[in-house]
Amino acid sequence: MISAQIREVLELQRQYTSKNTPAMQRRGILIRKEIAGSLFENFDRFKSNYEIAIEDLWVQGKDGEGNKAEIPWVRLGSKELSPSAMKGWYVVFLFSATGSNCYLSLGHSSMIYEGDSTEKRYQKPLPPELADEMVRWGREKLQLNAIKVPRLKHKMDLEAKGILAEAYNRTSLCGFEYPLQSIPDDDQIISDLELLLEMLSKIYLLQETDPTIPGSESPEHQEAVAAIAQAAGRDLTGPRRQGRSRLPQAHKKVIEEHAVEVAMKQLDKRGFTNIKDVGKNHSYDIAAKMNGVDFYIEVKGTISLGEKVVLTKNEVLLHRQEYPNNALIVVSQIDLDRSDPPSAKGGKVLFLSPWKIADSDLEALGYDYKVVKAQE
Q1: Taking the CB of residue 46, how many other CB atoms lie within 10 A of it?
Q2: Per-residue model confidence (pLDDT) at position 191
Q3: Is-contact 304 333, C-beta < 8 A?
Q4: Domain ranges across the chain
Q5: What confidence score (pLDDT) does residue 246 get?
Q6: Pairwise CA distance, residues 172 & 113, whole Å
Q7: Which of the residue ranges 125-139, 221-235, 291-305, 333-347 would you say has the lowest mean pLDDT?
Q8: 3-state secondary structure string across 344-355
Q9: CA pair distance 2, 183, nearest whole angstrom
Q10: In angstroms, rounded to a whole number, what is the distance separating the alpha carbons of residues 88 and 319?
Q11: CA 32, 38, 39, 40: dihedral to nearest 10 degrees?
Q12: Which of 83, 99, 150, 253 has its CA 20 to 30 A from that of 241?
């Protein structure tokens, strides 16, 4: 059934037009209903495979709203971790623009939203450097080089010239090609799908345990967002999020203490004097001198890549006031031993001084809204 449906979509692709012709109407029914329905019928088989740990597995097909998409798709993934094609990792059937082939691929969402409001939002490809880092991370974690499946490919040719086809290819880890003239039978397609869903399950598990995924939110960021949401009366703790974003207080304490210790050693190497840990009593972490001038140093420690750090309002105000006699030290990728008692070691050091905080580098996590003033 799935094999025949894939073949019919590819044959219809040869008549592709962005208009809503009878051929494109039939293509839409195949993508959104028939192929998705055939895949859904195999969910019991997927869930009986102990390597596929995706409790909220779902299937979604799209062929364009209004104008018909040049590359229609049907995807499978976690409803929570990938609620849309614009978010997360998933397995996807991608149909080439000319109808020559279909790819069954494991990859990450390739597009992001840009713009400061719903009305002004538009789609753009994931930044190439971030996409490359994510694919490199995924292939290393899955050890794809060690998987001996001759049919498994690492590149696709969707035979389209637009930015979307390039973005799809850039964010694909691996997959299978089904040429129109030699589409495998249903058993082979389902077997291929099981293999990729097993890999996807490993990716999802790593998302919950590995804070060094490129582009991922650090535990500190997730906790700040969750706390703000809770204060606003919203609960962001779904089944997969429980315990994932929040580190125990004892773990946070050893991370912070280790980061300050590393930062003080870094300052000593750079020729600073009178280096003191003042974090308990001030809105900055370390006081030091350079050539007799007082310096104010902020320290952030994290087990993540440290691409973003959370700043309080007071920290921003103080460092803007004390610029250029200030510094930011980020100690990232700290190795946290979660034993009892916990301990921390290692880390990569980023030193910024003078540290100028630009408005464009700040991202609001929440707001205090003056309701009384709004009513005046």
Answers
A1: 19
A2: 95
A3: yes
A4: 2-209, 249-361
A5: 64
A6: 19
A7: 221-235
A8: EECCEEEEECCC
A9: 10
A10: 35
A11: 90
A12: 253
pLDDT at residue 27 in the model:
94
Q: Which two tokens stand for residue 320?
A: 């803007």
Nearest to 214 by CA among 93, 131, 112, 106: 131
Token pair recorded at residue 231: 């204060």
Cα 211 from Cα 213, distance rounded (Å): 6
CA-CA-CA-CA torsion sign (200, 206, 212, 217): positive
Domain 249-361: state its class. Answer: alpha beta
Pair of tokens at residue 147: 């998987």
Q: Does residue 74 contact residue 31 with C-beta atoms inside 8 Å?
A: yes
pLDDT over threshold 80, residue 123: no
Q: 346 Cβ partners below 8 Å, 6+ apart? A: 333, 334, 335
Q: Tokens 């140093």 belong to which residue?
A: 297
Tell me, what amino acid is at 22?
P
pLDDT band for position 376 (50/70/90)? low
Looking at every residue in the chain, the average pLDDT score rounds to 88
CA angle 304, 134, 206 (to 5 degrees): 55
